[in-house]
Design goal:
Helix content is about 35%, strand content about 20%. With about 300 residues, the protein is α+β, with helices and mostly antiparallel strands.
Length: about 300
């Protein structure tokens, strides 16, 4: 397909969905992706179970400078239509807290569904194809030079995603093309990403890697009560990922490890009833022993030295 009607750059969830939608409208569609296989982020989402949608979706759930866009987008296609497609493909799923929907088996089911829809719509997918240049003309439409040859199309869709995970194929190509064609770019900021550390906190995160803790995380008056997950590079999990959309470099994040308790009252109570007990033993009643030991070392590390 050297001259399809539509070329979609990027074989992620958005690119594949766009591709089969265009194919269902009778257009010839070619998907070009630089990775060795499409849908890599789909496979890693939701801890491998793919949190593919949510029962409770409103325009207010999105961060956008143009709220009318969110209203229009959800009116044209909503979560119920996607759920219908999931059920039509026989994918078993379950609901978790806050109306989140996850696959019972694997995120592979969602990727297989998208690929099946693409196949039925006649979409052609080409991987290991890096975009070198893109040009446009009124007569020929769009011309692409790639590592797999040259292509032309009437309509070009850029679905390359953001910069968050370069190892999964993320790049700045989408921004470069936007600038090339004179589109206005807003300041970029991280969103729905983990926090990584390079100081002593990184060592603590490495030791606690895999541990999930129910916390309340806050920044700028915004709070989320979800799990925090320690990783070998820092912290992740639902609370962290959601809060990252509201955080700006240099701002302080508050993490309440005992969200159901008043920590001040708790400690004062222990001081009265268990004055001779070790604090780490008392806290181990509410937090994992490993976390308590790391908090203890962190506390001593940051205590002011007496002269």
């Amino acid at each position: 397909m050297k001259k399809p009607d539509v070329i979609v750059i990027g074989g992620g969830a958005a690119g594949l969905f766009c591709a089969f939608t265009a194919g269902q409208r009778g257009l010839s569609v070619l998907v070009l992706d630089s990775s060795n296989k499409v849908g890599k982020k789909i496979l890693m989402s939701g801890g491998g179970r793919c949190n593919f949608t949510n029962l409770d979706i409103t325009p207010e759930n999105y961060l956008c400078n143009n709220p009318h866009f969110c209203i229009s987008a959800l009116n044209r296609y909503n979560q119920w239509q996607f759920i219908d497609m999931v059920e039509r493909h026989g994918i078993a799923y379950h609901e978790r807290k806050h109306g989140e929907l996850f696959c019972d088996e694997s995120a592979k089911d969602i990727l297989a569904m998208l690929l099946d829809e693409c196949q039925q719509a006649g979409v052609v997918i080409k991987t290991k194809c890096e975009i070198k240049t893109v040009a446009a003309s009124e007569q020929e439409g769009y011309s692409l030079q790639t590592s797999s040859g040259n292509y032309q199309c009437k309509s070009l869709v850029v679905a390359t995603g953001g910069l968050s995970i370069p190892t999964m194929g993320a790049s700045g190509l989408g921004y470069e093309l936007a600038e090339q064609f004179g589109l206005n770019l807003l300041p970029r900021s991280a969103g729905l990403v983990p926090f990584t550390f390079s100081d002593g906190i990184k060592q603590i995160s490495e030791k606690l890697s895999g541990l999930a803790v129910d916390v309340e995380m806050s920044v700028n008056g915004i709070s989320f009560r979800e799990n925090l997950l320690f990783t070998h590079r820092g912290i992740s999990g639902p609370a962290t990922l959601q809060l990252s959309s509201y955080w700006k470099p240099g701002q302080t994040i508050s993490v309440n490890l005992l969200p159901d308790l008043n920590s001040q009252e708790l400690l004062l109570g222990y001081k009265k009833t268990s004055a001779k007990s070790l604090l780490r033993n008392l806290l181990a009643q509410h937090l994992s022993k490993g976390l308590v030991l790391e908090l203890q070392s962190l506390y001593w590390l940051n205590m002011p030295r007496q002269q």
